[in-house]
Structures are given as C-alpha cells and as structure tokens.
C-alpha cells in the first residue's frame, strides 16, 4: 500500500479512538472550568465587599450554566452585569441546539475524510496492480462506483446545507425572542419597574433570559426566578414558544423549516435530508412519522399536566392574587417548563405532593420521548443485531444511578435530615436530584419557617435547595448535572439485569 493511503488510514484509526462521549465530556468540563475562571477572576460580584460566593458555589454555577441545568446555590442578583454576560455565553455554548451544530461540523469532516480516503485507496490499488502485473491489461469500469459516488456527494452537500439551516435557526429565534422581551418590558410599566428596582440592565436581562430559555437552562437574573413576573402574562406567552423551539419541539420545527425551504427552493439536498434522516446522521433529524409522534407526545404531555395542574391548584396558595386568565397562562407556563427549562412562577413547596410527583416524572423524561408506536421505516430492511460493548452490559440503568446518587446524598446529609426533617426530607432530595439529572433546575427551595428547631440566625434565601447542602453534597450534585447532560450515552445501561 502506498504511503499516502497508509497515512490517511492511520489518521482515521487514531481519530476514532476518541469516542464521542469523551469528546463531549471534555468539552463541557473545559467550558465549565473556563467559565469558573471568568466568573471568579475576570469579573467580580456586585455584592462586594459585603458578600462573595465561595469558589465551589461559583464553579457550581458555571457547571450549571454549561450543562444548562440552572441549579443554583447562590442568589442570582449577586452576579454583576459582566458576570451575567459570561453566563449567557456559557448557556449558549452549552445549549443542545449549538452543541448539535458542532456535531454537524464533525459529521461533515468525517464524511469528507472518508470520501477522500476511499478514492485515494482505490487509486492506490490501481497503481499497485499496474506495477506488479505489467503484462496484463487492467480494465477499470469508470461507472462502477458512479452511483455510490453520486450518493456520497449528495449526502455531503445535504449535511453542509443542514448545518447552515441549524446555524440560521439559532440566531433567528434568539434575536427575535430578545427583541420581543425588550419590547414588552419597555412598553409594560410593571415589568420595567421590576428591572429598575433590581438594578438590572434591560438589554442584558432580555438577552440573558432569551438565551437561557431557548437553551433550556432556566436561569433568570432575578432572585425570585419568574415569580416576580407571574402577573405579566404577555411575557410568559413570549417565553413559552422559545422553550419549545429550543428543546422538545426543536426536531419537529427544524423539519418544518427544511420542508418549507424545499418547497420554495426545490433543491434536491433538502429532499434528501427529509427522506434519509438516519443516513444524514443528525440526532435531531427524524423520519416524518417519528417527528409527528414526538410533536403529538409533547402536546399531549403538556395538556395532561395542564389539566391536572388546574384541577388541583386552581384555588391553592400558589395562585392567590391571580385572575382566571393569569392562572391559566401561569399554569401553562409552569407545565411547559417541566421539560426541561425549569423556570417557575410558583413556589413549588406550596404545591400538592401529587403535582410534585408528576413534575418529577416529567423532568425525568428525555426531550424526544414518544408514547406512540414508532417504526423506523428507513432501516426496516437493514436491521442487524448490534454487538454491545462490555460497558453496556455492566453499567447501571439511569433509574439505578439516580437511586445511588440519592442514597449517597442522604448519607452525606444525614445530620441535617435528622435535625431539619421538614426541609431535608427524602422527597425534596429526590426532586433536586431528578431536576439536576434532567437539566431542569426546578427546586423545592429552603424555608426557615419549616425548621423544627428554629435557628435565630436563619434567613430565607431564594436560591435552590442545594444551596443549603454541604460542600460534599454540592459536589455530588455537580456529578449528577454532568451525568444528566451526558445521559444519552447511557440509554442502554443496565441490560445485564434480569428482574424475574
């Protein structure tokens, strides 16, 4: 074999040694570390010198922003305008839409490398045959691989075009959403007054909230999350589409965008993307029937939650002071956020246990969960038995991992569970763990009024329940956030277990 094909084959083999899991994990860890440096050293909190967050809390916030988990251990109004800008960048770079765009670039590169490698390898074989068999006539059929080559070219062009569509989709939604949020706050005096009282910059707030909502992170620059805006139904209605466009309905909306572009341009590449979703290899591009199933399931789960929430919480403590219209919009906003943004206009600790269990179940579900019979027609004739790796057999299932994490945290926080049982109960800990795993960010919070042995120095804080945990407990939750962001690589875990 000539030197050039050998070198290409070696590069390809070595590049495949690094699995996507390690590349993605390294990406999030490096981004979290850089975010920690930016938040801790490049910029300073606006509460100095009266209060400065601990290094672990700053790193926790950086990880939470990068993994779009929105778990918090310090109040959001601690951070300065510059720090909020850094967090906006972290949420944007860690959001699923942007990371999927980066994966498309890797897919493009891999396809180009494979194409060039195969052509060079074939050319090398021809030269080798000519050198060794000089007395023989070598006949090469120029159209032998024409169909495969043509399909490969169309595939590469389609992937390139898809990357442009995704790249355009992201800024259009963010810019339009940010403009609408800014316009609403400018026009509505009550919303504008809230920002003035808290000393928040209008443009920073609008961009931060829009990026956080679209990336499904859920951070809001106010201490009270969206509770202070619970009567601003217009703002909630602006944010609801952004939640859906960036996560659970990202795939269906992307397919609609591609279908629209195909109708107006008639480009064959768009048709190829629509009809060869698995061959393109983009994780958010599904066949038509499966896309419809995802959309129907998303709407169905929202309707179920909305009906249950309105039935049980219509006249509850959480909805006091709201009109019927505000209750309906607020309930819709709340249930949409359970998958997986985590913004909240209600104090979750005041909701009924049945609602909390329902919310915990919704936080556990992955974005593209479907409850309809989905058959992959594109691969129906090509189904093969896939060889599983050893790790897939010995690894634990995702529910098992959540149980293990919960047990470890209960052991670490056992003294607080004994002395402060109303705050540190198993339900609150399980809810926090599932929220971190689902990268949702909803939290039961902590209340001094629920202390069995009142502490005169206790002050109610608006950050998450994890803010009252020990440093060890917070570090374990950081691991849970990474695990939750990477959970797609553990979907086949626990296959070795047989429950009879």
Give a structural overview.
Among the domains are: 220-364, no CATH class; 396-490, no CATH class. It is 62% helix and 0% strand. It has helices at residues 3-16, 20-42, 55-66, 81-94, 96-132, 146-187, 189-198, 202-214, 233-245, 250-265, 268-275, 277-280, 288-313, 324-337, 353-364, 390-394, 398-412, 414-419, 426-437, 471-485. The radius of gyration is 26 Å and the shape is globular. It starts with a helix and ends in a 15-residue tail after the last helix. The relative contact order is 0.11. The chain crosses the membrane at residues 21-42, 82-102, 161-185, 205-222, 234-262, 345-365, 393-412, 424-446, 466-484.
**What profile does the largest beta sheet have?**
none
Estimate the helix proportion, in percent.
55-70%
> What is the chain-wise order of helices and strands?
HHHHHHHHHHHHHHHHHHHH
Number of helices: 20
What sort of overall outline do the alpha carbons produce when their principal axes are compared? Answer: globular
Which key phrases capture this entry?
single chain; 500 residues; 20 helices; globular; membrane; TrkH_K-transport; transmembrane; sodium ion transmembrane transporter activity
